[in-house]
Each structure stands twice: as C-alpha cells, then as structure tokens.
Amino acid sequence: MSSAIALSDHALRAHLSAADPDLAALVARVGPCGLRVDADRAPYEALVNAIAHQQLHGRAALAILGRLVALAGGAFPTPEALLALPEADLRACGLSGTKIRAIRGVAQARLDGVIPSRHDAESMTDEDLIARLTTLRGVGRWTVEMLLIFSLGRTDILPVDDFGVREGWRVIKRLDTQPRAAELAAIARDWSPWRSAAAWYLWRAAEAAKARQYVAP
C-alpha cells in the first residue's frame, strides 16, 4: 500500500518556507508535498530496490525490477527465492555482477537476521539502522536513507550525498557549483524536523531545471 507520508503538510511547508526565502519560493511553486511512503515494503525489499536504482535512471531500474519480479513468478522474490535464481538469469534482468553480489548479500543478511523485519526496524533509530545496514556489501548511507524515507516514512532525513538534492539547492540558489555535502548538511539543520520533505522539494527543483521548466527567481 502506498500512502502519503504522515506529515502535517501545512506545518512542514510553513517551517521550510520560514527557513529560507528561496526554499519558500520553491515550496510555493510546487505546492503540497507529494512524498509517498510504501507502508508495506519491508527493509529487505527496500534495499534490493535501492541497489537496483544505484547509478541508474529511475525508469531503467524499474524495468530491471519488473523483470526480476516476473522471473520470480510475479511477486517480489523472497530471500530464499532470490538466492536460488541463477546468476545468468539475474544478468538477463539487467543486473550487473556487482549488483548481483550486493542483492544476494542482502538476501543472505535477511535470512541471518542482520536485516530486521519492518516491525523491528520501526523501533530502531535512524542512526542505528544506518550503522547496521551499511556493513553490507553495496549498501552505503544513501541506500539506507532511501529506505528510511520511502519505506519507513522517517521525516527528518536529508541525503546530502544525493546528486539531485545538491543540484536542487544549486538551482534555487543560482550557484555555479553544487554545495559540498557537509555544507548542505549544516544549512539543513534549520529544516529539521522536515528534512525528508525538503529533499523531496529539492528533487523537484532539479528535475524541473533539467527539463528547463524552473528558473530561480
């Protein structure tokens, strides 16, 4: 089930708008926050999805995942089913050797209990989940941050290493270059506790600029 993130939209827009005038202009232009959370997606599935999306356009990653689901019989493969799939079949889905090793590692980690169930993950802090899951092959901080935002609905995550987030800030601030991750993290302290929503708005700015539909005031 996909649902709107459980936030007070009026409160988050007011808070972000008060934090920065250019962010306020972006929020006014885009309107209500459309960040969606998949309330049924377990951490294991979220990590496999995030790995598939690494360094790929969203549509390409979704096509790969669609082929993976079809290969597994129409449902997202369980860890056991994923580990049983031949490497040749996984490569035919469009997965590289590196990503195959990573998603197999994720599947084994779920079976070993390293990756928590959704129920257990909901009682863990952001940093505890990041510390545990980044020990896995192919799972960096950004990958876990995507899980935190889009699967667990955590409201105060800003993935400062994300190209689109930094590009969105560059666009609305009319900068020549993107900010460094540490610089943006310091700026974003004022956006707490709605930094996930801020990331969503900055992604919209980056996408609109790429389509030449956004010109910063």
From TrEMBL:
The keyword DNA repair applies. GO terms for cellular component: protein-DNA complex. CDD domains: ENDO3c. One of its GO terms (molecular function) is DNA-7-methylguanine glycosylase activity. Keywords: DNA damage, DNA repair. InterPro entries: Alkylbase_DNA_Glycosylase/TA, DNA_glycosylase, HhH-GPD_domain. Belongs to the alkylbase DNA glycosidase AlkA family. Gene3D superfamilies: 1.10.1670.40, Hypothetical protein, domain 2. It catalyses: Hydrolysis of alkylated DNA, releasing 3-methyladenine, 3-methylguanine, 7-methylguanine and 7-methyladenine. SUPFAM superfamilies: DNA-glycosylase (SSF48150). This is DNA-3-methyladenine glycosylase II. GO terms for biological process: base-excision repair, AP site formation; DNA alkylation repair. Its EC number is 3.2.2.21. SMART domains: ENDO3c. Pfam families: HhH-GPD. Residues 52-207 form the HhH-GPD domain.
